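Our consortium's second objective concerns turning raw sequence data into structural hypotheses that experimental partners can test. To show how far this objective has progressed, the report includes one record in full. It was chosen at random from the queue rather than selected for favorable results. The single chain below, 195 residues long, was entered without modification.
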Amino acid sequence: MERQSDEVINYVDDAFAAGRIRDARRIMVIGCSGGGKSTLAQKLARRFELTYLSIDRDILWLPGWVERSKEEQRERIVERIAGERWIMDGTNTSTFDIRLPRTDIVIWVRMPRLLCVWGVMTRWLKHLGRTRPEMAPGCIEKVDWQFLEFIWTFEEKFTPRVKAAIAAHGPHVPVLQVKSRRQMRALLDLLRVPA
């Protein structure tokens, strides 16, 4: 099944993606926690004057790490993606059916898992005892074993879901995979986005 999904995903290179991003009105940035998707999305939002939407902050969480109901999450997404110019970071595949059809390009941040763990740990230390800006108010930054296990097994457990959801709901949408910090910096350079 994974091979079949890969065959229907419209993977693109950096140069093609850079042109598509410059012209895009709606962009999804997906990937494992700690890989840099929120930072990338915020930089692109500023550079191209797109509304920044965070699944964590705007859709998923209420204060105190209380998850909104699935129905409310979908309602909030439908409401927000009705806008003409946005960039949304978040990998919740259960909403790809409503997000992908409105998306001009997907940027899939696929960093190595050790880099993702490092990213989450440094983010936790930076925001120790506080809520980071791309998180819902009242959700104090935390790291636990369950979260670290999620990151460690992301490629094995969740990547097949991501591929299947893209194949099912957006095989026509270009997908750029960013697999290293070097590639991310090269993309930002192509787009003339400040560091």
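The partners drew two points from this record. The chain has one domain: 2-188. DSSP finds eleven helices and eight strands in the chain. Both points have been shared with the crystallography group to help prioritize constructs.
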